[in-house]
């Protein structure tokens, strides 16, 4: 586990990071960055070790695939917002909206390596013995992220992402996304990315090293 960090001296990722056009590249670039939450004055942080990319156009796995609904409206905003939705009526899943207004791309954050506020994470997870933040629903619970926070600007002070000044060069592996079998041929896109060898990923990867 990474040593505790002083998140106040770490710069938030700029709007320009999120507004790039290639959501797949952004999903890769988010690996190794640090997700931080400030919920009721409790700071928690975790290194991002697993992501999935979703494109708002011609990607049947994406909620906003060529359609605009009240549920997906936030995905059509400028990149750098949080899109959080409820899965199976239980799990709050945290996504990073990317690209410019009207494009509806997003990156699902699937797993974190806990860094700071670990005791609070355990408490939120009811001291479960399972991995603390491995899996999108699990990490949201550990970090205090809920659907009511959907639309929050990631450049503000409740949920944000920073560079990891202590990060080393990482190897990235890719695989197909999880739980999107309904997406037909798009379910085969190798758009899930993990840090190779990291024990906190939610599921092992079958594919080769990502380019």
Keywords:
211 residues; 8-stranded antiparallel sheet; 4 helices; 8 strands; 12% helix; globular
Kindly state the number of beta strands. 8
Give the name of the CATH architecture: Roll
Please tell me what the overall shape is.
globular
CATH domain topology: 3-methyladenine DNA Glycosylase, Chain A
Number of domains in the coordinates?
Answer: 1
Percent strand: 25-35%
The whole-angstrom Rg is: 16 Å
Question: pLDDT average, as an integer?
Answer: 91
CATH homologous superfamily name?
A: Methylpurine-DNA glycosylase (MPG)
Question: Would you state the CATH class?
Answer: Alpha Beta
What is the end-to-end distance?
27 Å
Q: Enumerate the spans where pLDDT stays under 50 for 5 or more consecutive residues.
A: none
For the report, how would you describe the main beta sheet?
Answer: 8 strands, antiparallel
How many H/I helices?
A: 4
Helix-strand sequence: HHEEEEEHHEEE
Q: Considering DSSP H and I runs of 4 or more, what fraction of the residues is helical?
A: 10-25%
Structural class call reads alpha+beta
């Amino acid at each position: 586990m990474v040593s505790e960090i002083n998140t106040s001296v770490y710069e938030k990722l700029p709007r320009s990071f999120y507004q790039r056009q290639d959501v797949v590249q952004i999903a890769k670039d988010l690996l190794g960055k640090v997700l931080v939450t400030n919920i009721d004055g409790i700071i928690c942080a975790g290194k991002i070790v697993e992501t999935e990319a979703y494109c708002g156009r011609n990607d049947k796995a994406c909620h906003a695939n060529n359609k605009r609904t009240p549920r997906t409206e936030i995905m059509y905003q400028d990149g750098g917002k949080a899109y959080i939705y409820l899965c199976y009526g239980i799990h709050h899943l945290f996504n990073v909206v990317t690209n410019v207004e009207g494009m509806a791309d997003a990156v699902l954050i699937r797993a974190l390596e806990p860094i700071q506020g670990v005791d609070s994470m355990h408490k939120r997870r009811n001291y479960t013995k399972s991995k603390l933040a491995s899996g999108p629903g699990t990490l949201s619970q550990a970090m205090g992220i809920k659907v009511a926070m959907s639309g929050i600007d990631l450049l503000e002070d409740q949920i944000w992402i920073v560079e990891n000044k202590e990060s080393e060069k990482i190897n990235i592996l890719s695989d197909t996304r999880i739980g999107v079998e309904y997406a037909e041929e798009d379910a085969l896109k190798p758009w899930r990315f993990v840090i190779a060898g990291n024990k906190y990923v939610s599921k092992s990867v079958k594919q080769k090293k990502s380019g």
